[in-house]
Design goal:
Chain lengths: 440, 506
């Protein structure tokens, strides 16, 4: 065991050191340093982070000298998404040119700079992207098993209610330990979401009810149930909303509020990152993920191989629902945020579908897509300073999704461009060689 | 001599592989020109280039002596080039006539014109004796007739150059005879034909000349009349190929699989697919179940492997009743299965080769620990099998199964199933759609497994394969066992009669 640990340390010493430095500078240093030094600290964190990524890329290229961009499927898929994003932004520009030509270019700059306008905006971008990342992960995970989970909204709602209920009613936990209260509320949300996700999973596995139909229906059940439960158990009739959660149940800040002053950022992003890593490991490193993906790709072959596709299907929906439930819990376990007994489906669940697709249904892709969405949202917020409505952002997102649906076409375009460039390079190399021989 | 089509020095690359490397094909007017090569040799790629589906990186195409640029199948049609694809491109709920005129419709004031086209179709079908009822739906006619519709479609478009992509792969022996006759007749009428195939017997039967490709490279063109089948096979594979299967007499030992009174009921058709079948397979023998496609062999195998529930009967493996066991339990108990449909059951096409090679063993301690996959072990396993079974692919162990050629996909499945080293190996049409080299190889493997005291249940539609490989033969007709035979004592003709249902043993 110890020998193994030593081997692991040797293998990725630089990685370990980097993570350690990052951990210290994100969670410990902000509490110790004076506020004036915070921007410098942020710069330092960025530098370390990007430096490490650059180092990894360098290592990869050194180990694979024959690497050809046109043969890397990941790279090609990602560039498809990037092109889709550019198409969406161009369309947004067009819209703004029509609505209010005078400020259009200023507007597009506002949208693109979005969450990077200020440190505060950056913190808010991360804060707003947390539920989106989680619902995106929820949809993406189910997608990998060949299931289309439209019910992230319902699972999120159930998770949110359960978390808030625990936050309001189980204050006794907070007296034992504040962290305990928050964690139980969070886990309660995840469990409620998991149950809500497992229902369509069970229906699909044993009664062959299509999961799209079942999840859509359960969205409405969750919505009305939510209204009913709030008014019955945790209603604050003065404000027509759920009661305030106990302060012990609120998401802790873990010094992140010092790193991004005046923003709403909290520990949510850390939870989201942990979920990204867990799902990434499940999908890519475990036999369970091997089975799940195999069932998603080819159900008949998985049956032939002796996999229990029914059980896998239920597990997949269970995990998907738990992640969506977690999103709901993290959304509402914030002081000043309240669940309301109104009959409206919570939109974050549906945005998750778009983010899952934009992130190519891979956990890391979803993380990036979610952050991008958070940034756009911040852009939309600042867009109101100019003479535009923030709805333009929604239109841009919609166009991006349409464009990424054209992914295959875009990918082909990328492959051709890359190949043409590679051939040109090869030709010029050959020419050089020929010219070289002429000289002799 | 004038050539009607010349494809000169064609090079076409795909990521990781040169599908065509400096290939030249010259087609004379009125000849049947066979294009011979193993799976993945680049035959289909070359024809797709001619048909405008792919653009070559290098080389030029001349039609009737003029250099042309073919960008799409429409261009090819205009040049009089027609293609019958291996998988037909027909609309199933359209009639024959509608399919033939599709994309080439005559209209008056926007209304479809049918009388004249149907007249023309009838004339064509009489002229070339391509009998087919123009008013039947495609879904109601046989595969052989569908192929005639495809041919009529080309003739209707006045195609002069006809490409047949593996036309006999899906046909019964009688239909094969017929299509051969039709091709000869077409050539006699002045049409030029390219026949893509890897069946040497057919080339010998109809082709005038034959061009051979091997691993994307052009090997040569020969006159079929002066060249022996062995010589052509050697050109294709690159070494001498034996057509004789050497095998010792079987020495059957104890029983491995016992099937007792097995029946499978078809809910959809409300009839039995398999009726009261009993047999046993012993260690060290190959039992072959022969029969024409669709006589219950598929369902029989699915019941034994656990893909469907039998309605009656027992399946006993090594003395243990496995009739109601899960597929996983059967796999562990010792059933290997080379499935009939390699894309539906055999492979996950979006997984890499190495992941496909651990399809039934990923959960064993060899490939996982505490639920985590051991990637090093998986890679080593793949490398070993790739080497041992000569599985060829663009990027080795990490190649996506989807991008491998059919023959190599099949080799991967055979490698995986044989390597599992179980007592019972069920092989369903293991050589379907493969070339002689691969067939020879798989046959050798099956016999080697038999000699290693494995029990082998072989399901095959090819009479030759049945006769050559098996130690005992059972013929199935309409779900019933109509007779058991010793391959040494029965003739192909007699077997054929039982397969067609005109004879039955009591």
């Amino acid at each position: 065991m110890l020998a193994k640990l030593r081997l692991l340390t040797q293998k990725n010493l630089i990685g370990l050191i980097t993570s350690f430095i990052l951990f210290i500078s994100i969670f410990i240093l902000p509490g110790l340093l004076p506020a004036a030094l915070i921007p410098a600290l942020l710069g330092f964190i960025g530098l370390i982070g990007f430096g490490y990524l650059g180092y990894k890329t360098y290592l990869f290229l050194k180990e694979n000298p024959e690497f050809k961009p046109s043969e890397s499927t990941t790279l090609i898929k990602v560039s498809g998404s990037v092109i889709a994003i550019i198409a969406g932004l161009l369309f947004g520009l067009l819209m703004m040119l029509i609505v209010n030509p005078g400020q259009a270019f200023q507007g597009i700059v506002t949208i693109v700079s979005g969450g990077f306008r200020s440190i505060q905006a950056m913190g808010n971008m991360i804060y707003f992207s947390v539920p989106i990342i989680l619902t995106g992960l929820s949809v993406a995970f189910a997608f990998r098993t060949g299931l289309f989970n439209i019910g992230a909204t319902g699972q999120l709602t159930m998770g949110a209610f359960t978390a808030v209920f625990i936050g309001v009613r189980w204050g006794v936990l907070g007296e034992v330990s504040p962290t305990l209260h928050w964690i139980v509320a969070l886990l309660g949300g995840a469990v409620a979401g998991a149950i809500w996700g497992a229902i369509p999973g069970l229906l699909k596995a044993y009664r062959n009810v299509h999961e799209v139909v079942a999840t859509i229906m359960l969205n409405y059940v969750a919505m009305y149930l939510n209204t009913l439960l709030i008014t019955n158990y945790i209603y604050n009739s003065d404000y027509a909303r759920a009661m305030d959660i106990k302060t012990t149940a609120a998401t802790p800040k873990w010094n992140l509020d010092l790193l991004f002053p005046r923003s709403s950022i909290g520990a949510g992003i850390v939870i989201a990152l942990i979920v990204v890593i867990i799902l990434h490991i499940i999908l890519n490193k475990t036999t369970f993920g091997y089975e799940l993906k195999s069932v998603g790709f080819n159900r008949d072959a998985s049956k032939y191989a002796g996999m229990n596709s029914k059980r896998n299907l239920v597990y997949s929906m269970l995990i998907s629902g738990a992640v969506a439930g977690l999103a709901g819990a993290l959304m509402f376990l914030n002081l000043g945020k309240h669940l309301k007994p109104v009959n409206v489906l919570i939109p974050e669940g549906f945005t998750g579908i778009a983010i899952a697709l934009l992130g190519l249904t891979s956990p890391i892709g979803v993380l990036l897509a979610g952050l991008f969405y958070g940034s756009l949202q911040q852009g939309g917020y600042f867009l109101q300073l100019l003479d535009y409505k923030p709805e333009i952002i929604d239109i841009i997102i919609a166009v991006i999704i349409y464009a990424s649906a054209l992914g295959l076409f875009l990918q082909k375009f990328v492959i051709n461009t890359l190949k043409a460039r590679e051939m040109q390079l090869e030709r010029s190399k050959q020419n050089e060689a020929l010219e070289g021989s002429d000289d002799e | 001599m004038d050539y009607i089509i010349e494809m000169l020095n064609i090079t076409k690359e795909f990521p990781g592989i040169k599908a065509n490397d400096d290939v030249t094909l010259q087609l004379k007017k009125g000849e049947i020109h066979a294009l011979l090569g193993e799976n993945g040799a680049g035959k289909s790629t070359l024809m797709s280039v001619l048909f405008g589906l792919y653009q070559p990186e290098k080389g030029e195409i001349k039609v009737r002596g003029k250099k042309v640029q073919i960008d799409s199948p429409n261009d090819a049609n205009e040049l009089g080039i027609g293609m019958v694809h291996q998988h037909f491109k027909l609309v199933h709920n359209f009639t024959v006539a509608e399919n033939i005129i599709l994309g080439f419709e005559d209209t008056t004031y926007g209304f479809l014109e049918f009388d004249e086209p149907i007249q023309k179709i009838k004339e064509l079908s009489n002229q070339y004796s391509l009998k087919v009822d123009v008013n039947s739906l495609i879904s109601n006619i046989s595969v052989g007739q569908q192929q005639r519709v495809e041919i009529l479609k080309m003739l209707y478009r006045d195609a002069e150059i006809l490409i047949f992509d593996e036309p006999t792969a899906v046909l019964t022996p009688q239909e094969i005879e017929e299509i051969m006759g039709i091709m000869k007749e077409l050539a006699a009428e002045g049409k030029s034909i390219v026949l893509i195939t890897h069946k040497l017997k057919e080339i010998k039967q109809v082709a005038d000349r034959c061009s051979v490709l091997r691993k994307g490279k052009y090997i040569g063109t020969v006159d079929v009349a002066d060249t022996s089948v062995e010589k052509m096979a050697e050109m294709m594979v690159g070494r001498e190929v034996s057509f004789e299967i050497d095998k010792e007499a079987a020495t059957p030992k104890e029983t491995v699989l016992q099937v007792k009174n097995l029946s499978v009921f078809n809910e959809l058709l409300q009839k039995d697919d398999v009726t009261d079948i009993s047999f046993e397979v012993k260690k060290g023998e190959i039992l072959c179940i022969g029969g024409i496609e669709g006589n219950g062999q598929t369902q029989l195998v699915e019941a034994i492997t656990g893909l469907i529930e039998p309605s009656n009967g027992e399946i006993i493996l090594n003395g243990e009743d496995i009739t109601h066991n899960s597929i996983r339990k059967r796999n562990i108990a010792g059933v290997s299965h080379i499935p009939e449909d390699r894309h539906k059951y055999g492979l996950v096409l979006d997984y890499s080769l190495e992941k496909n090679l651990i399809f039934q063993t990923y959960f064993t301690p060899k490939f996982q620990k505490n639920g985590f996959l051991k990637f090093d072990a998986i890679r080593d396993n793949a490398k070993r099998l790739i080497k041992q079974f000569d599985i060829r692919s663009g990027k080795g162990a990490t190649t996506m199964a989807r991008s491998m050629s059919g023959g190599n996909q099949q080799k991967a499945i055979v490698a995986r199933e044989i390597d599992r080293d179980t007592e019972l190996l069920i092989a369903v049409q293991p050589t379907r759609g493969l070339d002689v080299g691969a067939i020879e190889y798989i046959h050798k493997q099956l016999i080697e497994q038999r000699d290693n005291d494995k029990a082998i249940l072989l399901i095959s539609l090819e009479l030759e394969e049945v006769m050559n490989l098996s130690d005992r033969i059972i013929v199935m007709y309409e779900g019933e066992n109509v007779g058991e035979f010793d391959p040494e004592k029965v003739t192909e003709n007699e077997l054929g009669l039982y397969m067609a249902g005109s004879k039955k043993k009591e």
